């Protein structure tokens, strides 16, 4: 393969349309850097594992469903331990920071980073940065040991504390350099991954032997490229409690309506999966799916129909569902202008009340439930705890192998090292032309509300995504940025 002219992006091209989007490495800018045998070779826990080390040429394909004549497409470097590492165990001085909002599983990631460094690689110097990025230069670091973090996975939130903002590249790298830190693990969403990329660039500019690794964190599951982000499974499971409560309230009253507002400012994954897993939901509104309120085929008409059929109904609304609402009058349009996403659930609940109050023949009893902070403040469940362990270990293996400027995550079921710019350059969206959304419509029996023409009008400024049959869908992206037609 021949590397492209852009050495910073490290894009490499091969035969049959093969493209490797590689990540930076210490050897890119430090000449003659020595390597050492991986300590895992003598670790008794791994002595019985066959073919434990990842082949240096192993990559993970971004798209695996292809035609027989398709190009091989984009690949990422496979995550995992290498036979040679670029740090000696007693040389490593690592630090961990958490940024952004809360998410189930953050403490598990912290614990597994600390324990993985200690038990797999014999690293004894691991520090925690308190209070997010500003903690690098405004607070003292704290020592983290397996004993200190032993039980933190049983708690929600983050033991290190977190914040938004407070980012200053120069001050952060000054602190890293002054304290002798050479491995930085940043747990955060797209903003934190973008900030981590800037830290990586500054480290490289100064010629420091420092690696920067990211663990992507968002409860919304809207980070591009990766299959899933940690905390999502727990959020969906926890949302069931709110939906069950709404169902109990709704079916206990004549014309009872339970409205549950779930997290999802820009993407409706939590609302969609919580709806599918519940089977008690009659309607799900998400940002990606256009709908309108009044008139034939509208949301209010559907509510009336369901109440007449069942006597009650449950509605799940993603907090950003206002993006999907097609205003039909100036009053609604003006109300939406000053409305924050977190207020949309209350706003639409009031619109439902006002609409049916005008219909003397159908009084309703509506209950609104907002479990936002209950969902994000809980500890990770069993599935997420295992997932967090894999993410943490993959990040450690990459850092020890000298890779930097990467975030780690599953791509088509295999963990890979992904350049920061690929996960901080947009959001993953629910594909409403995919079978998963069709399953939801089948489960709830709700209409699509807006026809194909309305969908196109709603997304007329969106990019066109080529499909295999040569057609185009506007404003639609799949899990890996590619439209999925099933």
Give helix % range.
25-40%
**Average predicted confidence as pLDDT:** 88
Number of domains: 2
Proportion of β residues?
15-25%
Q: What's the story with the biggest beta sheet?
A: 12 strands, mixed
Structural class call reads: alpha/beta
Radius of gyration: 25 Å
Report the strand count.
20
What are the low-pLDDT stretches, counting only 5+ consecutive residues below 50?
A: 1-7, 455-486
Shape: elongated
Q: N-to-C terminal Cα separation, in Å?
A: 34 Å
What's the total helix number? 14
CATH class of the largest domain: Alpha Beta
Annotated CATH architecture of the largest domain:
3-Layer(aba) Sandwich
What name does the CATH topology of the largest domain carry?
Rossmann fold
Top keywords for this entry?
single chain; twelve-stranded mixed β-sheet; 20 strands; alpha/beta; disordered N terminus; four-stranded parallel β-sheet; Rossmann fold; 486 residues; elongated; 2 domains; 32% helix; disordered C terminus
Provide a brief overview of the structure.
The chain is α/β, with parallel strands linked by helices and 486 residues long. The protein contains 14 helices and 20 strands.
Description:
The chain is of the alpha/beta class and 486 residues long. It has two domains: 2-228 and 380-423, Rossmann fold (3-Layer(aba) Sandwich); 232-377, Rossmann fold, CATH 3.40.50.460. It is built from 14 helices and 20 strands. The strands form four sheets. Strands 1, 2, 3, 5, 6, 8, 9, 10, 11, 12, 17 and 18 form a twelve-stranded mixed sheet that branches. Strands 14-15-13-16 form a four-stranded parallel sheet, with helices on both faces. The protein has a two-stranded antiparallel ribbon with strand order 4-7. Strand 1 and strand 2 form a beta hairpin. Helix 1 packs across helix 11, helix 5 (232-251) crosses helix 6 and helix 6 (269-278) packs across helix 13. It starts with a strand and ends in a 12-residue tail after the last strand.
């Amino acid at each position: 393969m021949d590397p492209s002219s852009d050495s910073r992006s490290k894009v490499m091209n091969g035969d049959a349309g093969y493209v490797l989007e590689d990540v930076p490495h210490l050897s890119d800018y430090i000449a003659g850097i020595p390597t050492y045998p991986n300590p895992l070779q003598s670790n008794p826990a791994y002595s019985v594992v066959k073919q434990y080390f990842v082949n240096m040429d192993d990559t993970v394909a971004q798209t695996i469903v292809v035609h027989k004549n398709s190009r091989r497409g984009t690949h990422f470097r496979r995550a995992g331990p290498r036979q040679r590492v670029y740090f000696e165990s007693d040389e490593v001085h690592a630090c961990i920071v958490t940024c952004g909002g809360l998410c189930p599983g953050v403490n598990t990631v912290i614990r597994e980073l600390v324990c993985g460094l200690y038990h797999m690689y014999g690293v004894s110097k691991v520090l925690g940065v308190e209070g997010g990025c500003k903690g690098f230069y405004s607070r003292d670091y704290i020592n983290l040991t397996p004993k200190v973090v032993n039980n933190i996975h049983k708690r929600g939130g983050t033991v290190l504390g977190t914040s938004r903002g407070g980012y200053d590249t120069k001050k952060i790298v000054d602190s890293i350099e002054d304290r002798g830190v050479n491995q930085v693990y940043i747990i955060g969403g797209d903003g934190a991954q973008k900030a981590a990329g800037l830290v990586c660039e500054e480290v490289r500019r100064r010629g420091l032997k420092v690696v920067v690794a990211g663990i992507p964190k968002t409860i919304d599951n809207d980070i591009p490229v990766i299959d899933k982000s940690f905390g999502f499974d727990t959020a969906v499971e926890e949302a069931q409690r709110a939906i069950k409560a709404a169902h109990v309230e709704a079916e206990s009253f004549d014309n009872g309506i339970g409205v549950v507002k779930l997290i999802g400012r820009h993407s409706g994954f939590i609302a969609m999966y919580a709806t599918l897993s519940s089977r008690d939901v009659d309607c799900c509104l998400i940002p990606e799916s256009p709908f309108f309120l009044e008139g034939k085929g509208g949301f209010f008409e559907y509510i009336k129909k369901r109440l007449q059929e069942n006597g009650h109904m449950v509605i799940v609304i993603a907090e950003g569902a206002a993006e999907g609402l097609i205003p039909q009058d100036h009053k609604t349009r003006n109300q939406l202008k000053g409305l924050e996403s977190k207020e949309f659930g209350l706003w639409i609940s009031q619109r439902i009340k006002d609409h049916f109050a005008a219909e003397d023949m159908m009084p309703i009893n509506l209950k609104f439930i907002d479990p936002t902070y209950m969902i994000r403040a809980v500890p990770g469940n069993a599935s997420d705890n295992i997932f967090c362990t894999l993410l943490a270990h993959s990040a450690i293996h990459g850092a020890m192998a000298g890779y930097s400027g990467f975030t780690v995550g599953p791509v088509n079921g295999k963990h890979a090292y992904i350049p920061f710019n690929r996960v901080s350059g947009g959001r993953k969206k629910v594909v409403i032309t995919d079978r998963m959304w069709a399953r939801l419509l089948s489960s709830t029996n709700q209409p699509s509300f807006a026809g194909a023409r309305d969908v196109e009008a709603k997304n007329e400024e969106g990019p066109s995504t080529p499909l295999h049959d040569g057609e185009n869908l506007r404003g639609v992206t799949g899990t890996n940025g590619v439209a999925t037609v099933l």
